[in-house]
Design a protein that fits this description.
Length: 230
């Protein structure tokens, strides 16, 4: 039986890399993106894997766009949800000039939208094999690691996501729930000067997810499987 996965933000960056990785490995993928069905990279993957890739247009921060995803999740069990979609909107701002809309939108995507998708997926995960939720968090969401300040919207939204990860793990012992830091990765978000490629990060993340045991639920790891401080 092939692994059934759902990956958000599947149209570019780490989400696209994860989608390719799981398809190459024989998994079925529900690929969620704002414009999944019109993204050339996803369209060519769906020609290559017509039986195993389903493209779903959804903006995770707009609840009214999640109907099609909900319909698919009601039809089949799900083994792995990767909550990858995320935004960083406050690179150029300090505390004084941070637009509150940037703060709101960061929480809408990184926390609220991620919770909304996870809520929709929970019943399907309950029917899955070794059901797992992987949250693409960031070391920038670690309170213990914060030695340089700034990034109020991004850091606080990822810290909130970390807390969601912990509570979800405690409340749902049948589910493996982890927060993952992908490294500093060469994507639109990470920039070209980042230290690792999408391929390196994705290979590591997938390995960490595959090796996850019950005792790891509610914890925070990097793409190399090293435990990170909250
Ligand atoms: P990226 O290249 O900027 O891609 C972000 C993805 O999220 C895109 O597919 C984007 O879709 C999607 N997205 C944003 N808002 C969305 C929404 N409302 N609904 C659906 N999809 C939405 O970022 P990345 O580097 O691949 O990062 C992926 C994850 O890893 C993020 O959660 C990020 O915080 C985390 N991370 C990345 C790094 C790094 O160095 N790259 C480091 C630490 C953590 P659109 O194309 O529609 O905008």
């Amino acid at each position: 039986m092939s692994l059934k996965t759902c990956i958000t933000g599947a149209n570019r960056g780490l989400g696209l890399g994860l989608t390719e990785h799981y398809l190459h490995g024989g998994a079925q993928v529900l690929a969620v993106a704002r414009q999944a069905t019109s993204t050339p990279a996803l369209k060519s993957l769906s020609l290559k894997y017509p039986q195993r890739l389903i493209l779903i247009d959804a903006d995770i921060a707009q609840a009214e766009t999640l109907g099609e995803l909900q319909k698919h999740l009601e039809q089949e069990p799900l083994d792995l949800l990767i909550n990858n979609a995320g935004v960083i909107l406050d690179r150029k701002f300090n505390f004084q000039n941070l637009p509150l809309d940037a703060l709101r939108q960061s929480f809408e995507v990184n926390v609220i939208g991620t919770i909304a998708v996870t809520q929709l997926a929970l019943a399907a995960l309950k029917k899955g094999q070794n059901p797992t939720v992987a949250m693409l968090s960031s070391l920038m969401g670690s309170l213990a690691d914060n030695s340089s300040g700034g990034y109020y919207a991004y850091r606080s939204s990822k810290a909130a996501l970390n807390m969601v990860t912990k509570s979800l793990a405690l409340d749902h012992p049948w589910l493996l729930t982890v927060a993952l830091h992908p490294g500093w990765v060469q994507t639109d978000m990470g920039g070209p000067q980042a230290s690792i490629t999408v391929q390196q990060s994705v290979t590591g993340l997938a390995h960490v997810i595959q090796e996850m045991k019950n005792k790891d639920s509610g914890r925070f790891f990097n793409y190399q499987g090293q435990s990170l401080p909250w």
